[in-house]
Design goal:
Length: 266
């Protein structure tokens, strides 16, 4: 069996990541998120549906391909039918002998939501105040891997790539967590800021993935099991395209295009 880590770069659109940035893990491909917003996207991913390819196949075949991929990731024999009736990945993995963990302060992971099911340990960073940068998440993952005597499934959501990209010199606009449209003068955004913000996300993604690569070996070294890593994003981000900024309940190619790479680290 393999440990499995689903590492989500919040809001990181596909073209913010250099195609070589994840070559140490596997080929990075363009995939499409199931939603342009955090909660529904996380909901889909935790049902076992990773960001999808863009092929004209039937829904039934899409389910079959998606669910069968978890056999290779986990190293255990899973059928597409294994996901029924719950369609809830943490439940399936827990029943298969995994301990399941979430390292995230994404609001939809609070204790009252439907997402909060079958986790053995949650909100580590809320309790330890370590933070949600990739560096801190890698430390948390290392801790879990080194202390667990059973295979683990970890979901980690990094805010490095979420506006304002954890930098302290970008405008902070109330309500900007979702999207803003219309009169930029009211929001305090100017066209020069948008290009700067787009570069800031790409820089944040680059730093985040360099940090991840540099800490990967020590992160995985404490576990006797190999660890299958999936690195992707829950949705993209818009920087003024068609008048939109951010992410939320609107539609644009760049909002749905996300990076996707996976591979086994021994
Ligand atoms: Zn998000």
């Amino acid at each position: 069996m393999n440990n499995v880590v689903l590492f989500i770069l919040d809001s990181c659109r596909y073209d913010s990541v250099d195609e070589k940035a994840l070559s140490w893990l596997g080929d990075m491909s363009k995939r499409w998120s199931w939603s342009g917003w955090t909660l529904p996207s996380h909901m889909c991913m935790l049902s076992g549906l990773m960001p999808h390819t863009n092929e004209p196949i039937s829904a039934a075949r899409a389910y079959w391909y998606q669910f069968r991929e978890w056999s290779d990731r986990t190293g255990i024999e899973l059928e597409a039918s294994s996901f029924t009736p719950s369609y809830w990945l943490p439940a399936l993995l827990s029943e298969s002998g995994y301990k399941t963990y979430v390292l995230s302060t994404v609001p939809c992971f609070n204790s009252h939501t439907a997402l909060n099911r079958v986790w053995h340990f949650e909100d580590l960073f809320l309790k330890t105040h370590v933070g949600l940068r990739t560096v801190a998440l890698m430390d948390g993952i290392r801790l879990i891997l080194s202390e667990s005597s059973e295979p683990v499934f970890i979901v980690a959501t990094s805010f490095d790539t979420h506006y304002p990209y954890l930098l302290d010199n970008l405008p902070r606009v109330s309500g900007i967590r979702g999207g803003v449209t219309g009169d930029w003068s009211e929001t305090g955004f100017f066209s020069c800021d948008l290009d700067r913000m787009k570069r800031a996300q790409a820089d944040a993604a680059s730093r985040s993935l360099i940090a991840m690569q540099s800490k990967m070996q020590e992160t995985c070294a404490g576990s006797e099991l190999p660890t299958h890593w999936i690195v992707t994003a829950d949705h993209g981000e818009l920087f003024g395209e068609e008048g939109y900024f951010g992410h939320g309940p609107f539609v644009h190619d760049k909002l749905f295009e996300v990076p996707f790479a996976e591979g086994l680290i021994k």
